[in-house]
Structures
1.
Amino acid sequence: MNKGQLIVVSGPSGCGKDTLITAILERMGEEAFLSVSMTTRNMRGDEVDGVDYFFVSPEEFEENIKNGQMLEYAKYGNNYYGTPLGPIEKLIETGKTVFLNIEVQGGASVKKIYPQAQKIFLVPPSLEVLEKRLTARGTDSVQEVETRLKIAIDELRRAEEYDYIVVNDVLEDAINDIMSIIRANQLKTDNMKNIISEVVNNA
Amino acid sequence: MNKGQLIVVSGPSGCGKDTLITAILERMGEEAFLSVSMTTRNMRGDEVDGVDYFFVSPEEFEENIKNGQMLEYAKYGNNYYGTPLGPIEKLIETGKTVFLNIEVQGGASVKKIYPQAQKIFLVPPSLEVLEKRLTARGTDSVQEVETRLKIAIDELRRAEEYDYIVVNDVLEDAINDIMSIIRANQLKTDNMKNIISEVVNNA
């Protein structure tokens, strides 16, 4: 069995990150999961603990921070939100691929906690295309689209902090690119050592 | 344009290396080349300089060694044989993928001269399968097959010197694995920096 891995995906708003991750999760089936965030806010309506969020007390959240178990976190108002490493590590141990869909800001700290993470930066083919996509969503005013484009340019300048850069022009190509990255990482010698022992020891 | 790359492929005799590389070269067409060796022996019959070998004088070969331009080399009898970096670098600059099919012994020195090389170790699914393949070739005696298997076990123990390990069980899967490695390397941030500048500067 290949060891699993954590794939961090970031990219400017409108680059198609959510659509892409959903498509890959569908294609990989039982082999891939989206990481679940942790929060100290109250559970709402039909939310399920461990599915929508891991709902914990502020004390438990702070304990996780102290133990270096939060890949990234932030406090909004009185509540903490973040990504706990523990559940991700359990999935990785069983050979699963875990996706973390995260803002460029949050992505910066992940490798400090978990250096093995593979960070992918998703970019639009051009700023014109990004503007068209943002405008087509119809959710933002002209002013808001303008602001998002400015933020996008700032974020694109931080792409060098990532391991891989994937251009999301044709969705199918971008899916295949990310599948290639996942496969290549599975084939890295560190993740394949057991295969060699199997071949030699079954002699 | 993505930058090209050097892919070094090694593996025990009978693991299917030659068949695999031939199939990938066919699939990649103009995008991939097999590296051409350099030698000081005389040209024979219908051999072509630059195709079968680069035929050079002993002085030129030694000059290449001195300048750190030989990825690996050996002397058999009075003649040098080796792999010159220069022609490979020219292809890489134009975005091509270059394959170097090489023994485990020769592969060890490549990264000293060209650290960017990606080294792939090809393994059989099991020693039983390797034995069957070697026997099926019909070119080796039982004794020779035995010797090849012993060498194979020694070589498998050196697989950790490689960046990637690919199991050659079903040929098509092994081809796809190597294509994934090539694509993932093209997508590494270092090889994609120009894409980011293009996106930002065309604003």
Note: Strands of chain A lie at 5-10, 32-34, 38-39, 54-55, 70-76, 79-84, 97-101, 118-123, 164-167.
2.
Amino acid sequence: MSTIGKKFAKLGVDNAPGQEGRCKEDSLDFRGEPLPGRAVDFSHGDVDAFPPIPNSLKHVINGVEHIGARQAYTEYRGGSETLFMLSEKLSLFAGCAIDSLQGMILTPGTQGALFLAMGALVGRGDKVAIVEPDYFANRKLVEFFDGEIVPVKMDYFGCNDRAGLDMEQLENVFRGGVKLFLFSNPNNPVGAVYSQQEIHAIAELAGHYGVSLIVDELYSRQIFDGRGYTHLCAEKNAPAQLVTILGPSKTESMSGYRLGVAFGSRDIIERMEKLQAIVSLRAAGYCQAAFASWFSEPAGWMAGRIVEHQQIRDDLVSMLSSCDGVQVRPTEAGSYLFPQLPPLDVDIKTFVKILRQHAQVTVTPGTEFGPQFTDSIRINFSQDAVAACSAIERMLCLMSRYRK
Amino acid sequence: MSTIGKKFAKLGVDNAPGQEGRCKEDSLDFRGEPLPGRAVDFSHGDVDAFPPIPNSLKHVINGVEHIGARQAYTEYRGGSETLFMLSEKLSLFAGCAIDSLQGMILTPGTQGALFLAMGALVGRGDKVAIVEPDYFANRKLVEFFDGEIVPVKMDYFGCNDRAGLDMEQLENVFRGGVKLFLFSNPNNPVGAVYSQQEIHAIAELAGHYGVSLIVDELYSRQIFDGRGYTHLCAEKNAPAQLVTILGPSKTESMSGYRLGVAFGSRDIIERMEKLQAIVSLRAAGYCQAAFASWFSEPAGWMAGRIVEHQQIRDDLVSMLSSCDGVQVRPTEAGSYLFPQLPPLDVDIKTFVKILRQHAQVTVTPGTEFGPQFTDSIRINFSQDAVAACSAIERMLCLMSRYRK
């Protein structure tokens, strides 16, 4: 097989969230009667249950009908007025200065920002430290750009006042020549928030060893229980080579517009724009208009959304925890849960397929987040509350049929 | 400089269309008084002069407000209903069977399709044949994926019944180990259409030498003078490894939605989807709804648009041709002209900067389309007709001040 053939053979999407329809139909060992109920797709949030920020569509309509050509064709890095407006809002939110002219870029979703940032920083053979577990695309991106994945462990069951990153291991791999460290905070899929001490130490180590940082803060607005959150970019010791990624696709339910933003070091942002010029030119010009509603939600809207999600988390965590053999860390921020299931007769990918076909419940297998998570699944609980509880009940029932 | 540093140093965007605001401000040799007039940006079409297909926005609004989650989150390759609908329309248009399930993908613009197709096919060191002149991103894409550009000449001034591709050279480079041939038909920037004989010969040679083909047919709906057009995918001898790219960003003025489509060999489309999963997940879900208006324009709308563009072409070609020392091939399809200017006292990039600052006229330097086009500029004449004529007049006036 050619080099590029091998690369694509590794780059699977069949088990990725939202791609379940592409799964090969195996003959599955169904046990017991099907469990009927409203289909729930935990692979991503349900924007029918939690609709986009009010007025975002109005901004898009205005962009198409009134702003016109200027909205359709922006610079590759995004429209200058939108960049300026967002730099003001995000500076306040993240507590750091953002240069809207040179240090910021609008992208097609945060996935777009991740791809561009990785493309800007990862060359052939470069060592990239990746947390396990972390967002499934992180590892695929390193492979696509011919980098070398250097995993760093996170003991997320061992603590609840920090994420649980193995800082000793992190320093070891930094010392061992890691060029870039990419991580999500809050962590996807665990929903753990890094403590101020952890963030401070990561910044310190990155500066000391000359490691570049990409911090994916996609879920940083949806913090539960009034917990604190530390933006690495606001730390005094933040390293020079740093990109922070944010976007309105999750809590704000605006994924359908494919909008993301990255800010940080000018030279990295400049490379990201060069790459965007050949990848997709720009985030859809008309969609960029929807950014106007972000961080300008109606009074109480965001607070209400957080309360509703916290309630669903409480309900699901309670159901999962009370089931013998299931271990789960309550989400501290974001909409993910990453429960560990007891030993089953079937492997996790098979269980996920059975669950989908026999109980209309779609979840993402843990192995998407690191090869060792063969006993875990990820759930996005941004769903209709009643439907979500019923789906978890069906899942637990089905699980009991396959327990070892 | 690191390998990746060198790669990005080559990947310039400052002179790319739409990025003129990023040009370094040099001290320019202005001659004579400024030439006032309405600013015209010939680097891309003006969607205020030629607005998007009627009803496209309504489809988007319906997608957001009524279809909801199903519209926001499609499979990475696009929503299955949209894929099916488009496969029917495009099969009719291109005259070939399209497999909507396995052989088609929706992308963020045709730029997105090009990037994914190139990423799917170009590995380190692979030889890729590129027409000169051709779309400026083609060469950049080869460089980004570490391929080797193998240029093929097109004698576009030497004929008017075919594009003028050097078929002997094409066969030589195919024989010499070229793996992939990428070309646009109609050609961007010349506006030349490949003859049936040329298309047939390209297909034949590709099959014979086992070369993969990417055919960018972005402007294939805007054909002037009732000329014929040959879709390579419809040729009986079309090779197995073939991707055709189309989209509604140009004639249809829908660039602000960032929509493109690629269809062809299943294995290439499958790779493109795998890549899309880490690049930007999908073409913006809500925007995908706008595809419903494509190839379903109101009666007479497309014909009227073609007539209007043909008239502008006639006016500009007449102005340019009557200027001593300027050579131009009349556009056969699409909205581009690629006139060759007489020898000037300043290089083409400098002239383009002076033109922009002194006469409010933005054009793209020929060097974006091949290093040898130091005396040519590209013009997108999808503009307000009166403003376009006035801008060309100013350009010719300014040009006279810098003639050798």
Note: Residues 301-321 of chain A form the longest helix (21 residues).
3.
Amino acid sequence: MTLDPVLSRLDSDLSAATNRLFDLLRIPSVSTDPAYKADCDAAADWLVADLQSLGVDASKRPTAGHPMVVGHVEGDGPHLLFYGHYDVQPVDPLDLWDRDPFDPALEETDQGTVIRGRGSSDDKGQLMTFVEACRAWTAEHGSLPCRITFLFEGEEESGSPSLVPFLEENAEELTADIALICDTGLFESKVPAITTMLRGLLGEDFTITGPSRDLHSGMYGGLAMNPIRVLSNILAGLQDDTGRITLPGFYDGVPELSDAIRAQWQGLNFDHETFLGDVGLKEPAGEQDRTPLEQIWSRPTCDVNGIWGGYTGDGFKTVLPSEASAKLSFRLVGTQDPDAIRKSFRTYLESKLPDGFTVDYRTEKGSAASQMSVENPAFEKALNALSDEWPDKAAYIGCGGSIPIAGYFKELLGMDSMLIGFGRDDDQIHSPNEKYNMESFHKGMRSWARILDALTT
Amino acid sequence: MTLDPVLSRLDSDLSAATNRLFDLLRIPSVSTDPAYKADCDAAADWLVADLQSLGVDASKRPTAGHPMVVGHVEGDGPHLLFYGHYDVQPVDPLDLWDRDPFDPALEETDQGTVIRGRGSSDDKGQLMTFVEACRAWTAEHGSLPCRITFLFEGEEESGSPSLVPFLEENAEELTADIALICDTGLFESKVPAITTMLRGLLGEDFTITGPSRDLHSGMYGGLAMNPIRVLSNILAGLQDDTGRITLPGFYDGVPELSDAIRAQWQGLNFDHETFLGDVGLKEPAGEQDRTPLEQIWSRPTCDVNGIWGGYTGDGFKTVLPSEASAKLSFRLVGTQDPDAIRKSFRTYLESKLPDGFTVDYRTEKGSAASQMSVENPAFEKALNALSDEWPDKAAYIGCGGSIPIAGYFKELLGMDSMLIGFGRDDDQIHSPNEKYNMESFHKGMRSWARILDALTT
């Protein structure tokens, strides 16, 4: 048996693996904030050194933004590309964290031991599950079972601006038989999953300007139009009373579920009242004629991620502000066209601006949704390997998040992707107190060992 | 002649008076921010010392908040109470100031010399016009022409929380024949004014909470209700398409203008296109069936003074926030009842909250509108005195701002108030780069000398 000694070594090496992950988690590699540029660089260096310690030919590769880490090991059998990202989300509001986000620690909870810290689940903990599986395999067998290319990105949380040019420039080097992407979750704690449906993402970050300066509301109030009122009207008009998004053409390219997928989802034990109740909510907010799973996996959305304008400090200031700003994101599905939707949104927004108002847009990015082709036999092998490791049978699922990398791999490198990850819904991956269950970390490594075995024998 | 030598001394002493004002402007007495508590105290001390130098029996008087300054001089004839406030507005956004807000300076502009700095117009520069008139009078005649009580408050920009209890506790000491309040403006640069109609103010500062923590919009987006969306809907629903405020009962107690006032206002040379055009706006925003002067002087309003929620830093964060917050203010007129309107607003807001959402209110203050009784002969005397000083005839006008002090004087001390000030519309009193025209400062002092003369001969 080639697999059993690798699994045993992963079990006995778990503490050391946890310490290695802690070293990586201590590096505050927040990609969206220029203040952390050197830290992103340090995280890349750390990964290069760690891969080199496994015998991987690894190097840091410059981009216009944060660097990529690329590594190669040669071998027979299928050529796999493994992708993860070493950058993490911002940590604010910092006062809601129970500890320093970059001083990771183990905590005992009613779900068992968890690793607490920014990036523990998204995505440093996840990417290290694969690295640790490779480390154990190499230690037991002297080499990996097949040719593997490693690709670690440092801008995933910033919309991956350097990724497309990097894939284009290095297409030959990076094209493999199939990609493995570890940035998704379990379906639930006992049910592993391969995500085959991903929503796309379109962001809009903009400021509306009305008066040329802040005004005193006593002097101008009632006569001068308030940009916050204009912005509120714009945002309020984006959805109708049934939760449907009102932009003309928005639903072009939104597919209906196939009967097979609809039946499979109905069979999944998804309790939306518990899902919402766990975060203090009661009512589903999306389109009223869609099931909760459709709302998060297969329907497009519009959310306001941030809003600001006027006086926000302590006490009162009767100001009529010059500006109001918002950050919006649309989750896209099917063949919805990000460019067409951006155009429709901007046309709508500008139609709502009073004469004399202006708008300044700060964003230009968007990515379409992805759908994997599960006909590739690797999917079935990986699904079975996951079922062997976890208590319940593995499932093909959708995901509300956007991981455009799978679309880029298909489009630019002609490569299918298997999205396999071990996060849980309550990992708080973009919130304070992010965590990764020790079970996810441990069984994640073991899952990858099983998948490597399944794909190469 | 008692007046002429006083006017001459005010002319020759102008530079020294300006330097005294600069000393006061250098004290950053921002009352709304606890960080400036010691500075508010220092401004009160400065005023006590300055009044004492005029022979006024002045002292700093503690309150639950920032101190009052009270001073007395005895004399024959009418007993006047003069009111001003030594606290100033916050200065943010600081980066929009062309200089340190608390390092005042003279600047030459196309309107002549101006005094630049926070508080120059609102209200330190204005209150010093009266103090300087008293200084010159005392210097020329050895004493003031009548009994005068000085009352300087340090919480006007914070809604005057200590004022009512202070007036109640010291009613006998503070009650005079008439109050003079210097915190308003000219009608226009050549036209002085007595403000006889003031809007009231009701503030609401609140936070809506939905999810118990920030959520990842990829995981929850579409299913979890977003508090910013809820807040936008609440704010957007406050006004209808014609600019009318939709709260039930909101217009109860809003009077129509008398024919006389309507005729007088139509005679005023108010060009709303220029008024709005000067601040980069084109369209009036208020009730479409009301004239622009009605919109700012005699109609109630609702403005959002601040809004915040979610991620507002650089770049993107696909967060579905737990909270969204806003600060609103309503300007009130006639006999609108602040308590009834607050209740109507909160009923409306809470009716819009999805099941499971909560709201936390941080405000409890409100003041009704005021209307002065111009039958008191002091009004006519002061109006004529103003007409003597300025190029054009003085007018009785309305004011969009809220100066509840006049209402308190009437209600608690049975005293009429004359609101006379020399600010201009473009003083940017709650904005960056606040200024006070040197002409306002100089002719303001001279106006008070004339008014003192008119009221005592």
Note: Residues 234 and 349 of chain B are 6 Å apart (CA to CA).
